[in-house]
Amino acid sequence: MNLIEDIAGELCKILLPIPEEVFFGNPKSNIAICTLSNINLLKEIADSSIIGDVAIVGRLLSENKGIDSLIQFVISNEKIDTIILCGKDTLGHKPGYSLLCLYKNGIDDDHKIIGSSSPHPILTVTKKEVAKFQRQVKIVNKINESSIIKLKSITKDYKQTQ
């Protein structure tokens, strides 16, 4: 079944290309923002004053490779201790929901996110990496929030003095 899923994934990349954009802000910041599937919100944040208060802003489109990448980035950037999760979650895959499950419950021995009902919440990161991620960050659950004014206020609440 994994071969079929991999082939289907590659076909989707060709037929329905989705730009994987991230924007870097202040490298001294402790905050990352994840806009989930909302590319307009991503660009709006990148073009606003919020970008100066965050290390990175990006999207999360899958409950497996996307979360793997997010974990790897965060644990390799120990300054980041807060992730603001906002925007609309991807229907079907629900990576935001899976990220919250991972943060709360971790992964089982088969690397499946405990408690996730997403279609394929299997990660490649280790339990040790997940535990480091869980210790390092706080996830601020603002799924469905897309107001720049509200996000700016939330960012200020979690910003450390630099």
Description:
The chain is an alpha/beta fold and 162 residues long. The protein has one domain (21-158): Rossmann fold. 40% of the residues lie in helices and 14% in strands. It is built from 6 helices and 5 strands, in the order H-E-E-H-E-H-E-H-H-E-H. It has a 5-stranded mixed sheet with strand order 1-3-2-4-5, with helices on both faces. Strand 2, helix 2 (39-46) and strand 3 (56-58) form a beta-alpha-beta unit.
Give me some keywords for this one.
Rossmann fold; globular; 5-stranded mixed sheet; alpha/beta; 162 residues
List the helices and strands and how they pair.
Blueprint: H1 2-15, E1 22-24, E2 31-34, H2 39-46, E3 56-58, H3 65-75, E4 82-87, H4 95-105, H5 127-136, E5 138-143, H6 148-158
Parallel strand pairs: 2-3, 2-4, 4-5
Antiparallel strand pairs: 1-3
Helix pairs in contact: 3-5
Provide a compact summary of the structure:
It is built from six helices and five strands; from the N terminus they run H-E-E-H-E-H-E-H-H-E-H.
CATH class (first level) name: Alpha Beta
Give the class from helix and strand content and strand pairing.
Answer: alpha/beta
Strand tally is 5
Question: Main sheet?
Answer: 5 strands, mixed
Sequence of strands across the biggest β-sheet = 1-3-2-4-5
Shape: globular
